[in-house]
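User: Hey, my collaborator sent me this sequence without any context and asked if I could get a structure. I don't really work with proteins. Can you help?
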Amino acid sequence: MRIANTVSDSIVDGPGLRFTVFTQGCPHRCPGCHNPGTHDPAGGREVSVAELAAELSGNPLTDGLTLSGGEPFCQAAECAALARIARERGLNVWAYTGYTYERLLAGEVPDALALLEQVDVLVDGPFVEAEKSYAALFRGSANQRLIDVPKSLAAGAVVLWERPDPWPTSPGRSRKAGRTQGPPLQTRMTAQARRGGACPRPPSGGMAVWLTWRHAGRLTRCFPRSGTNPRQPGGHKGRPYRHG
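Assistant: No problem. I've predicted the 3D structure and written it out in structure-token form, which is a compact way to encode the shape of the chain:
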């Protein structure tokens, strides 16, 4: 298949830490597109599904695969093969498309259904510059939808994806007087950081939260990878991150 690039640690193309494949070639050419270099179907480079599957295994912290572009449905058969491998490994699969879900089901795009059957969440519709929104979760413009594909196929109608509560109330905890109980992981991370200790690693799917807290500057001693931390005194001299 022909791709423009891959990103092994994306936190903006779906929940958690994701391996994102940017396919090459797009017939939509939306004005204001964030990736205009992916439009030319002759651009990019050729790579096999097996090679991408090997890259997918390179990071044990990966939560899911995202197919972006470009237009993944222009290479639906190859993308479906990669998505199938990802799901066999227990990863969730997201796909971005300039087509609407209805057009894909209508049979206008070859092998579209084969790919849809391997996708958990579809972000559909063209990018509309007039509806561009930084508040649109995992989307470029407000017209695009986050579709729960398995539920939609089963129901025969579009079912929108609902983001799971990242801080579910644990047994024995309560939410009273309009105040939400602080998340257990957040509480543990904050307490250990203040004591100067190592932070616990987040559960699967928690990497985005971890990075968010890091960039917010609230946890100065919690970092996701080994290495050095230039933000701490002496970090540029090789001071290691503190992590669990």
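In plain terms: Residues 13 and 138 are 6 Å apart (CA to CA). You can pass these tokens on to your collaborator as they are.
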